[in-house]
Amino acid sequence: MVATEESIIVDQLKNPELRSAAFNTVVRKYQRMLYFHIRRLVGTHEDADDVLQNTFLKAWRAIDRFRADSSLKTWLYKIATNEALSHIQKRAKRSFTDIEDLQNDLRHSLSGGTYLDGDEIQMKLQRAVEALPERQKLVFSLRYFEELKYDEISSILEVSVGALKASFHHAVKKVEKSLTEES
Q1: In terms of C-beta distances under 8 Å and separation of at least 24 residues, what long-range contacts does 101-104 make, across chains too?
Q2: Which of 45, 70, 81, 165 could serve as 74's disulfide partner, Cβ 3.0–4.6 Å?
Q3: How many other CB atoms are found less than 10 A from the CB of residue 168?
Q4: Cα 155 to Cα 161: distance, rounded to the nearest angstrom
Q5: Is the dihedral of CA 46, 48, 54, 59 positive or negative?
Q6: Does domain 119-183 have CATH number 1.10.10.10?
Q7: Where in the chain is the domain with CATH 1.10.10.10?
Q8: pTM recorded for the entire structure
Q9: Is pLDDT at 24 greater than 90 in this prediction?
């Protein structure tokens, strides 16, 4: 049996002598994709940076408990998603606002972000995605932007594949409607 790159990294993460170097490899490999996933959820570069740091810190602390039931990538996405959602909840509590108000604020701030600047169509898409309910936004982002498979998303969100497909379908319809209304 040929070892995959991921299985080699996981083996190295389990070895205390190789763990630090292997974790640096993990950070380099997944940092960019996790950043953009988190950024789509939390809205600002500063918040995304904070959540990304917390994600890797949590992964480092929990590496001994990683059982490889899912891929390393899926495990990291799950941690990142949970950290981002937790960050959004904390921010909403601190500002005494509810999640919907916070989403509206994020939607309006999208046009000023350094990393999200783009052509008009991209901005319309980002606004449409921000308007989705939280679960649909998560499913849409993981499926459309991150191009994850339904079984990977199922592991991350702990939701059945059928429910994910339904959420994605509804999200796509809402995004399409939003884009045609803006045109």
Answers
A1: 103/130, 103/131, 103/134
A2: 70
A3: 18
A4: 9
A5: negative
A6: yes
A7: 119-183
A8: 0.75
A9: yes
